[in-house]
Amino acid sequence: MLMTRSRLFIALVVLTALLPQLPVPEFWITQLNYIGLYAIVSLGLVLLTGVSGLTSFGQAAFVGLGAYTTAYLTTQWAMSPWLTVFIGVGITVITALVLAAITLRMSGHYLPLATIAWALSLYYSMSNMEFLGKYDGILGVPAMSLFGFSLASGRSYFYLIWIVALLSAVAVIRLLDSRSGRAIRALKGGVTMAEAMGISTYRYKVLAFVLAAILASLSGWLFAHLQRTVNPSPFALSKGIEYLFMAVLGGIGNVWGAFTGAAVVKLLEDQLQVLLPRLIGGSGNYEIIVFGIVLVVVLKYAPQGLWPFIERLGARWLPSSQRVRDWDGAAPLPERDKPQPGELLLDVQAVRKQFGGLVAVNDVSFSIRAGEIMGLIGPNGAGKSTTFNLITGVLGLTRGEVLFRGQKVGGHSSREIARRGMSRTFQHVKMLPDMTVLENVALGGYLRSKKGVLAAMLRLDRDEERGLFAEAERQLQRIGMGAQMHELAGNLALGPARLMEIARALCTDPALLLLDEPAAGLRHKEKQALAEVLKQLKAEGMSILLVEHDMDFVMNLTDRIVVMEFGTKLVEGTPLEVQESPQVRAAYLGTEH
Ligand SMILES: Nc1ncnc2c1ncn2[C@@H]1O[C@H](COP(=O)(O)OP(=O)(O)OP(=O)(O)O)[C@@H](O)[C@H]1O
């Protein structure tokens, strides 16, 4: 019989609790203590690098910040470590926020470089400051005690380390399985998609960065009171790289990968430190060379790290992670005021977009009324996608204005536009392939829910989550994909993936649905299925703007069509009028055939 995941976790907790009581040699208790400390830091990297896609070489510096804060305050000011932990975390949060403000808006390699710079500068500050004892560090850090019970021995301290490590793991697992967690996971799916769902990607990058820093700082706090002394070397840049190595080796995409990586590196390091000097002769940090080679091999042959192998081996005993369907009867998510049929919904007024000398969109105007399906068509390079991006806030207007439900939205961010009730799909499907179809669609409900990180970690968000999943399932049923909700989105063919995007957009409860070339690349059957879904949505009163290249596809679906060519509006009319227009024929035949 399969155990449930929570039973498995309880078994792990019981084992951890029993371990120091068993006649396990002191050496192994010490090893496990360090593994716990390292795992806490790597856990932060799983969140930051594995889940959010942001690389940091500077985690050891945050460990140092936590360690030095408690070492200094407990030795110089005789403060209790139970107080210094809050001060250490506070200083870490402020530092991380400042660093995040400087670097996280930048793209590309700035963050990793900034974390290297930060790691180096903190290391040299620690090494050169008189009051921190320079290279000798701070000696005589007191052992901890709790309610008069001393935690001076490795065996008793083991409990504290592993309580923090396992609680951190639980907190991160719960976070990842929540509204905020899905937003963090969406960072890797591309900023454009997340922002179009109303997610502030900057906010969640900062969040991941700060949470990873807090975990590192907590590890430093524990480390200082285990070692009873601190000096700069364990917080150097090389250690920051080692933490990253642990996370990558263990499996940077999974919480338990952090523990796997910490254990493998710690155990391997000890063995190699003894073995290699004997083999090679003479002393030296030869293990670093071996680690370098191992890392290259792992990145080449097992880029997901070791954890997926362990998971596969244990698949027979490990329970499936499929979400239990527990949302029947969940309270529905709030809905926006819907426009009345015929109400002027979108009014595009002479919008213009120039890229240098190229006028990609040349004073184009059209409007959409509630309940209508409008097609925007034109040959390749006509300016359809650019017009679409001007409406959805991805591009700024050079001139002109866009009004949505009577309010100016021109130049607003795509997040703000999503909030007002326009929801879109993408020409090239944007989704999170390792999340299920249901979770991907639930991302659309982001703006209709509000529970935050703490609520997720304490599981106070379950009612809202049930509401979100009920809504996601409803939207999937609506487009005929209910049966596929537990599939991994990455396994979908293009047709169903496009439909999933429509369900995600519907999950935002839009007043206007914008579809960017939904039929592109689809096979005939898939096109038919898509057309059926769109007809049904229209019958339900949904307003849709359909940007399409394929003229036949839009003919039977739309109420009106705007045809663009060379950035300008060529013709606007009913499908019949457009079909019979000699200008349109010339544009299509002239450019396509
Ligand atoms: N970011 C950009 N920088 C410079 N030129 C651009 C940019 N985006 C689009 N263009 C140009 O603007 C024109 C219109 O492009 P757009 O992608 O809007 O056309 P389209 O009608 O959507 O074509 P397709 O069917 O191929 O997607 C093209 O000439 C294109 O090369």
Automatic annotation (TrEMBL):
Cross-referenced SMART domains: AAA (SM00382)
UniProt keyword annotations, A-Z: ATP-binding, Cell membrane, Membrane, Nucleotide-binding, Transmembrane, Transmembrane helix, Transport
Nucleotide-binding keyword on record: yes
Bilayer topology annotation: Multi-pass membrane protein
Domain ABC transporter: residue ranges: 346-591
Highest taxon listed in the record's lineage: Bacteria
TM stretches of this protein: 35-68, 80-102, 108-125, 157-176, 206-224, 244-265, 286-303
Full protein name: ABC transporter-related protein
Locations listed in the record: Cell membrane
Gene Ontology MF: a single term: ATP binding
Listed PANTHER family: ABC TRANSPORTER ATP-BINDING PROTEIN (PTHR45772:SF2), CONSERVED COMPONENT OF ABC TRANSPORTER FOR NATURAL AMINO ACIDS-RELATED (PTHR45772)
Pfam families, per the entry: ABC_tran, BCA_ABC_TP_C, BPD_transp_2
Entry GO terms, CC: plasma membrane
Primary localization: membrane
InterPro entries assigned to the protein according to its UniProt record, in alphabetical order: AAA+_ATPase, ABC_AA/LPS_Transport, ABC_transp_permease, ABC_transporter-like_ATP-bd, BCA_ABC_TP_C, LivM-like, P-loop_NTPase
